[in-house]
Design a protein that fits this description.
alpha+beta, HIT family, subunit A, 5 strands, binds guanosine-5'-monophosphate
Length: 110
Amino acid sequence: MFCAIAAGQIPATRVLESDRTLAFRDLNPQAPTHVLVIPKEHHADVAALAKAGAGLLDELLAQAHEVARAEGVSETGYRVVFNTGADAGQTVPHAHAHVLGGRALTWPPG
Ligand code: 5GP
């Protein structure tokens, strides 16, 4: 499904884009800033993305931090989360970082 967003076949509110990554707003935001950052290339989860190498995970994380700056939460604080597998609640099998901020985030998460 996120491949279709990357291809522009499903609409999304885009925040930032590079050749290999795309950042767009989560459909069901859990915080004032809730942006997803994906590799355009398909990888099922962050473990597969890390294994793919070629600096793609580095680029995705750099993009996540750029999103935080663009959203104005880099000073107040933000969280970058990769849900991985069923117990973590991963529902979309395409690697994605959640960038969350704009309010005090509880820890540990529920
Ligand atoms: P996960 O639970 O896999 O870590 O996160 C998937 C996220 O994708 C959820 O927060 C969900 O709200 C979001 N999401 C699911 N489908 C869509 C969609 O079609 N568009 C957008 N923008 N977000 C989506």
